Amino acid sequence: MNAPTPTPATGYAFAYLDEQTKRMIRRAILKAVAIPGHQVPFASRDMPMPYGWGTGGIQVTAAILGRSDVLKVIDQGADDTTNAVSIRAFFQKTASVAVTTKTAEATVIQTRHRIPEKPLTAGQTLVFQVPIPEPLRFLEPRETETRVMHALADYGLMHVKLYEDVAKHGRIAKTYAYPVEVEGRYMMDPSPIPKFDNPKLHMSPALQLFGAGREKRIYALPPFTAVKSLDFEDHPFERTKFEAPCALCGATDAYLDEVVTDDRGGRMFVCSDTDHCEERRAAGHRGAMLADTAGNEENVR
Amino acid sequence: MPTDIAPGFVDPVHESQTTFRAVLDALAEPGTIRPIAGVATAPAPLAPTAAAVVATLCDFETTVWRDEALATPAVDAWVAFHTGAPRVADPREAGFAIVAAGETAPGWETFRLGADIDPSTSTTVVLQVAGFGEGRRYRLSGPGIETTREIAILGAPADLAARGAENRALFPRGIDLILASPTAVVGLPRTTRIEEIA
Lengths: 301, 198
What we know:
The structure holds two protein chains of two kinds. Helix content of chain A is 27%, strand content 17%. Chain A is built from eight helices and twelve strands. In chain A, a hairpin with a 4-residue loop joins β8 and β9. In chain B, β2 (64-66), α3 and β3 (96-99) form a beta-alpha-beta unit. Chains A and B meet through α1, β1 and α4 of A and α1 of B.
């Protein structure tokens, strides 16, 4: 990272939140871990940023962060976009915490809508920013009703919705925030990660925490928790596939962003996970648009 | 109320953070032994580790129940002063319960078990035990455990496995257990299957 390290701010509590708020959030996190997939209410605080910018994730991160942690923050896979840069700087200022862009070096990774490509390891914690924690919200707007539906494990409405997709489009049309079933019990919204990332939720060695600031909910997946993407026997869950490899690093197994390159229909597909892409390029992998600079013809596809 | 209340955390912000992370890891990976520093000055029979957990998680928003063995003026005063948590006489009203020893632990069903609509309101039981790595052996499975994990606990209730089965049958309701030895914590959340190894 080339950006200068922000100067630690004085006069703030460690990691911004006061101790009583941290205790309240910590209690919610512990109950969330004990009931995987269940949304635990918490007294979400005003943060120095608007709702929708990751206030849930930032509160969870603030409640768990310690002096020996190494923090990575990604926004749609990128370490260098506004949301990620701001949140990283926020914790550098308020907690003097070490930061990294490398997935393998991080102990805590706060993410907006992606799971890193590099497999996470035991001891790492992934904190998701969640806009709408309730998977049933757009099918049943009343919170009083959705809570009863979770209490009764009454998830027929979602299966009907997915069936209607199949009837209308010939396939389940959901491509992000694809609902999952946790340990055969709770239906959970994995946050708006692409469904490409859904299989990474299942039996992950890392602890996964979800924070929704505006909706005031925290939920969790302990390591090695069974997470199944909803589907039908004759319409099984399918991971998104890409037609072309990454234009920069040539990866064929990563989630790609489409980038429009001119006003004549030009476009390229590049890794959404910037750290993964940089690491591959550093290791000599070259995609089509970097091929001429590579001098390594065997990696050109 | 005694006026000579023993000190709590020396550095509350960071000691409570490290204690919390140990408890979080303990509950996220049931059966793993997570050492914590504890509060050395905690008044006996309140164990330094149990005291650290209570000081980390309890405040004026949580109700605390303690069993008879812990009902000393020194312990009550310490918990009240360092947490501000209201003490309750009925374990069914307890957000947190502190139990002095496995042999005398009341049945889990005497605590608040939560409701299907809001199972997170159940009691978190902090149970003091004599140690890990010796005593009765258990095989654990469930979320947080890749296949199975074995743990030996000295001073757990003799019927820990049967209690666990009853508690698990209530899911998503049920209590969550934090075992506190003199040096470490182990978590047994409601999701963990507990089998005693003969």
